[in-house]
Amino acid sequence: MNRKNILYLGLALFLFLPGCSSTMLQVKDASEQGAQQLSYDDIHTLVSGKRVHIAHWDKSIEADVSFYNSGKLAADNSAGQKTEGKWQVTKDNTLCLRYDQWANREMQCYSLYKMDDGFKMFRSDGGLESTLAVTSDIAPESADSGVGLGQAMPGSTSADTPAMPDAGAPRTQIIPDPNAASSKGDASKKDSWWKFNWFADDTGENEQESAETAGDYVIAPPPPLSREMTHLLDEKECVKCDLASQNLQNASLKKADLEEANLSGANLSGAFLRGANLKSATLAKANLSGANLEGADLSGADLSGANLEGANLEDALLEGAALKESRLVDAILVKAVMKNASLEQANLHWAILSAAALSGANMKGSYLVKASFYKADLTGADLSGAVTQRANFDQALGYASQSGEPDSGKKEEKKDKSFFGLF
Questions:
Q1: Residue 46: helix, strand or coil by DSSP?
Q2: What's the half-sphere exposure (Cβ side, CA atoms, 13 Å) at 148?
Q3: d(CA 409, CA 128)
Q4: What is the pLDDT of residues 142-155, one digit of tens each?
Q5: 112 burial type by CB count under 10 A (0-12 exposed, 13-18 middle, 19+ buried)
Q6: How far is CA 209 from CA 194, 200, 204, 214, in A?
Q7: Whole-number Å distance between alpha carbons of 66 and 368
Q8: What percent of the chain has pLDDT above 90?
Q9: How far apart are the first and last CA of the chain?
Q10: How many CB atoms lie within 10 A of CB 402?
């Protein structure tokens, strides 16, 4: 080999080898190397209630993110910036993150893969975005505050609905008996009871006989389950059942059949109702805060005055549903079908309705501040009297800016392509 050929070879190695060593990993290559994609349940188990360290694939920026069980998150990055936001896991087995101060508040989703050297987050285009490592468990959230978190919205008559339930609250609570003796108590007292969160608060006639004393508390056994509750929990089916005011907090009711059931005033906060059939059900003034209703059928349901704060309603069917004066603060309604639904005087502060179908919906007097209607269909929707300041109607179909209001879509900043939208 002459000196000229050696020179060309050296130049080629200089130009191409460094680039190859820093090439971004692709999901296809990761799969060929034995990487395993995490499922819906795997992702929940990995991040829920955990503090996670996320680093861009080239280490240009890093962040610590706390994933609260309620679906909220708190993050701070290596540039000294902090924000809060929301997270969710979709039916497509992706982890989605939305930051209040970063990435134009847009939801961004990633597939997670487990490799020999840890967990990787891949974008929808197949490129590696970042690495992920769990660093510790986190304490339950502190009490929420602010508009949409227990406080009234302007003009709302249902603002007294409770805020997000404390994710760390015990499922069994012993209620002190003010009439009990100060040291050993008196088992003959019947004024206190054991509140077990699956059941109603009323106690049976035999409470006194089986009551036990524990210091200043009188503990009685839980009341017997009603026939409807037993059938629901055993069979996941209770069509036309009367479950009004029942306590179903954190209940696991995936794909349950509750068509035309009466759940008015029921406590379903934190309940897992993914894919459930609630067609034409009565849920007026029910508490569904933090509930997972992804893909649920709520068409024709009565949700008037219901609390759906922080609920996941992605891909849910709400066509013709009554949601007057309902509380949908921070709710996720991505691709939800809400044609001809009544949302009059509803509170949708910070709600995400990207690509939602809202044609013909009645949204008179609703509170839409900072809500996102990106690519939503609002054809024929009535937004008269709605409060729309800082709402995102970018690329929304059928929306015309209200008189005197700027087009929020034009105000949106160009999306930054840096580390999962931190800037």
A1: helix
A2: 19
A3: 29
A4: 433 333 333 344 44
A5: buried
A6: 14, 20, 10, 15
A7: 27
A8: 42
A9: 52
A10: 14
Query: SS3 of 181, please?
Result: coil
Question: Is the pLDDT at 367 greater than 60, yes or no?
Answer: yes
Distance in angstroms (rounded) separating the CA atoms of residues 237 and 73 = 34
Q: For residues 352 and 370, what is the distance between their CA atoms, to the nearest angstrom? A: 9
CATH class name, domain 143-165+249-392: mainly beta
Cβ neighbours for 396, distance < 8 A, ≥ 6 positions apart: 373, 374, 375, 376, 377, 378, 409
Candidate CATH numbers 2.40.128, 2.60.40, 1.10.287, 2.20.25; the one for domain 23-137 = 2.40.128
Strand partners for 282: 262, 302
Give CA separation, 96 vs 17, 47, 99, 153, 243, in Å.
Answer: 35, 12, 10, 28, 34
Q: How many separate helices (H) and strands (E) can be counted in the chain?
A: 6, 13
- pTM higher than 0.70 for the full model? no
Give the start-to-end residue ranges of the domains of the chain: 23-137, 143-165+249-392
For residue range 91-118, list pLDDT tens digits in order: 889 999 888 877 666 788 999 999 888 8
Q: Indicate the Cα dihedral angle 23, 26, 31, 37, nearest 10°.
A: 130
Average pLDDT over residues 276-302: 95
CA distance 276 to 316: 10
Structure-derived torsion over alpha carbons of residues 131, 134, 139, 144, reported in degrees to the nearest 10: 20
Q: How far from 400 is each of 87, 106, 174, 392, CA to CA, in Å?
A: 30, 22, 54, 12
Nearest of 81, 48, 80, 79 to residue 66 by alpha carbon: 48
- Secondary element (H or E) of residue 110: strand 108-115
Q: Which residue has the tokens 């969710």?
A: 88
